[in-house]
Design goal:
2,3-Dihydroxybiphenyl 1,2-Dioxygenase, domain 1; 4-stranded mixed β-sheet
């Protein structure tokens, strides 16, 4: 039952306050070495810290991705979870170099032109 005694004005369009920030993305992985190699050697992130089963990766000292190692099985396809993580690179040549590094390491990719942006989707080996 909904409590109608309290009247709240709900904005028709959700809007986060300008002071809102997002923290690092946490990703569960089954194979520590494989995941670390992709994020470091293909994407170009640096290992900032390692605590227990958590690997903190980022750029310029800022943690962007936290790999949670020790998952027992890959993610189940079409289940609830993160669809993708976007990493914006400054120039088209940077995107091309990332694609080459992925292909050199046999990482499956899907280049996409969205008309307003270009992207390379790296297939997550953990689902």
């Amino acid at each position: 039952m909904i409590d109608t005694s309290v009247q709240t004005v709900v904005k028709s369009k959700p809007q986060l306050p300008l002071s809102t920030t997002l923290g690092p993305v946490h990703i569960a992985v089954t194979d520590r070495a494989r995941a670390l190699a992709i994020w470091q050697d293909v994407v170009g992130l640096e290992l900032i810290a390692e605590t227990g089963n958590l690997l903190q990766l980022g750029a310029g000292g800022k943690v962007l991705i936290v790999l949670e190692t020790g998952a027992v099985r890959p993610a189940v396809p079409r289940s609830i979870g993160l669809y993708h993580v976007a990493v914006h690179v400054p120039a088209r040549v940077d995107l091309a170099q990332m694609a080459v590094r992925a292909l050199q390491r046999n990482v499956r990719i899907s280049p996409t032109d969205h008309l307003v942006s270009e992207a390379i989707y790296l297939w997550d080996l953990d689902g």
